[in-house]
Amino acid sequence: MIEVIDSARCTSCDICVNVCPTNVFDKTSGVPVIARQGDCQTCFLCELYCPEDALYVSPFADQAQAIDLIALRQTDAMGSYRRAVGWTDGTRDRRGDDRSYLLFGH
Amino acid sequence: MTIQPNRAERVYAPTGSVEFEADVLVLGGGPAGTWAAVCAAERGARVVLADKGFCGTSGATAAAGTGVWYVDPNPALREAAMANREKLGGHLQDRRWMARVLDRTYQQSNRLAECGYPYPIDDSGKSQRNSLQGPEYMRLMRKRTKQTGVTILDHSPALELLVDDDGAVAGASGVRRQKDDRWTVRAKAVVIATGGCAFLSKTLGSNVLTGDGYLMAAEAGAEFSGMEFSNPYAISAAFGSVTKTLFYGWATFTHDDGSVVPGAASKGGRSAIARALLEGPVYARLDKADDEVQRQMRVSQPNFFLPFDRTGIDPFKDRFPITLRLEGTVRGTGGLRIVDDSCATSVAGLYAAGDAATRELICGGFTGGGSHNAAWAISSGTWAGQGAADYARQLGTIGGRKLSRSGTIAYRSRSRRAFEPAALAKAVQREVFPYELNYFREASRLEGALARLDAAWHDVSEADAASKADLLRAREGAAMLATARWMYRSALARQESRGMHRRDDFPEQDDRQRHYVTAGGLDEVWTSVRPHADAAYAEAAE
User: Which InterPro entries does this one have (chain A) (predicted)?
Assistant: First the structure.
């Protein structure tokens, strides 16, 4: 489930509020808030659309997890999904990397 | 030549609501809904698309990667593509529909390439078009939908249909969750593309898929087909949401003590996993994937690895606990019954596309993966959008129709009992999640579940109207409940095992039951039987 909006990185663009398919976030006058964490379906799409790598979705779908943000910032987890699918400036060449055609029919 | 798109018109509405006049209203903004909206708009229709979440991220496709039943127009390849699935699907497919879906999917996938979808190029320089990356695909479809002049309402779940005095569907109404107000669209035709129902099981991207469109359509009198084909379960890490059954084709499945689960496999052995899970935990390790396959998996669906990378599990070396999450009619093949080539339903003005519609025509009683569903979404979306636009044009000017709201459950004022949506959803899940009820079916267990579900329906029918804050959840719960009842009533009617539908009391496929099961009704659920096209032809020839 969504666990973190890193206020140090967030620019209050509210993209996450718009794109979340289950309407988990609420706008505020500043950084959005995780208003309905229990509605999160752990689809990771907010992370994918966040241009600042300010979000972190924990892979645990059914239970909230305590997250140490300081430690998390030192890993490459935040933004890792965006880089993997080629949605950052430095990784655009990955968008055509899909090799599913080699895996089908197994 | 630039064609100026016709836009839906926003009309006056009292405070607290917005209203639009359109030719075609599309409910749902996944693949089927966006293809329907684009194709209706291209026929000159004024189109509104309302999505429960955000068109572009909403639904099972956006969050995942999906195969596409894309086959080059080579007669031998096409023949093989149709033939190799017929047995799995229990011979309920219709060759004519398979052929037209293959044609349309080929054509529309090539249009996607022209619009800029970054299909991969293989070593021989050929563009490979049998797979789509969900986020990339649906971001592009949102863009195309906007470019064709469609008005998109995001975070705007539809809650009930509007009907005219003759019972024809003429719009819908719902709420705008982020504006805290109501929306109404008066339209000449409506396309239901709200997806299937996965019962809030958290199978990837599916929690917006609660059967809402089924309930609304049923309230307008629509029928269903193949609702017994509604019990696929997908493999995921026990703690996670990412279901990607394809990759588990390289897995070894083990019990707690490390011994291999006999017969367990991702393809053709999932029931062994379900039976083992009834006894205790089951673990997987993708130890059959060599380095090359591992690399291909990583680039083909990066989000598969997020749950592992973020918990320090190496899925190729480490054992991790797995579970089976119910996919219901999202990966099942049942849905709204289609009555003609334009994907019209049995109700005037109402069309169905994608997972909301039955996929028996191309899949029969089984889909192995997303491939056929993706092809169906593209094709049925195209036909439903065009069909709805043509129907709207034929209707012409119809000012001043008196429309009424068709919502029932959660809208009726009854003072006796409050509506409790959270309890309702849980009660439905208790009947549809257990493998011993839904995966492995048997008459007395189905009858027990149905008795409880029918009682729950009676209960919510007696409940008071849901509060404004609860209305969406109440309607979702009612939709899940109605879906479960069509599923199990259909499952009882099919007294054999065929496709994904397995009956412990009728373990064999029965040639005399090579037919379709129709279902419908709300207070009283009914089923009946329709012959397969081949049987109908044979009878006509006699």
Answer: 4Fe4S_Fe-S-bd, 4Fe4S_Fe_S_CS, Fe-S_Ferredoxin
Chain A residues in contact with B121 (beta carbon < 8 A): 96
Number of domains in chain B: 2
Residue B242, domain extent: 233-326
Kindly state whether residues B42 and B123 are assigned to the same domain. yes
- Distance (Å, whole) CA B438 – CA B429: 11
Cβ of A85 and B57 within 8 Å?
no
Domains (range + CATH), chain A: 2-103 (3.30.70.20)
A61 neighbors A1 (Cβ within 8 angstroms): yes
Nearest chain B residue (CA) to A105: B246
For residues B240 and B226, state if they share a domain. Answer: no
* Alpha carbon separation from B509 to A95, B91, B505 (Å, rounded): 44, 11, 12
Long-range (24+ apart) CB contacts under 8 A made by B170-177 are B170/B349, B170/B401, B170/B403, B171/B22, B171/B25, B171/B403, B172/B25, B172/B27, B172/B50, B172/B216, B173/B405, B174/B50, B175/B471, B175/B472, B176/B18, B177/A23, B177/B472
Q: Which of B326, B351, B380 is the endpoint of a domain? A: B326
B279 and B350 in one domain? Answer: no
Tens of each residue's pLDDT in chain B, 542 residues: 455 678 999 999 999 999 999 999 999 999 999 999 999 999 999 999 999 999 999 999 999 999 999 999 999 999 999 998 899 999 999 999 999 999 999 999 999 999 999 999 999 999 999 999 999 999 999 999 999 999 999 999 999 999 999 999 999 999 999 999 999 999 999 999 999 999 999 999 999 999 999 999 999 999 999 999 999 999 999 999 999 989 999 999 999 999 999 999 988 899 999 999 999 999 999 999 999 999 999 999 999 999 999 999 999 999 999 999 999 999 999 999 999 999 999 999 999 999 999 999 999 999 866 799 999 999 999 999 999 999 999 998 877 789 999 999 999 888 778 888 999 999 999 999 999 999 999 999 999 999 999 999 999 998 888 888 899 999 999 999 999 999 999 999 999 999 999 999 999 999 999 999 999 999 999 999 999 977 765 655 55
Q: Which residues of A touch B206 (CB under 8 A)?
A: 41
Establish if B502 belongs to a structural domain.
Answer: no
Say if the Cβ atoms of A80 and B309 lie within 8 Å: yes
Pairing of strands B404-405, B224-225: unpaired
Q: Six-digit token pair at B485?
A: 């009842």
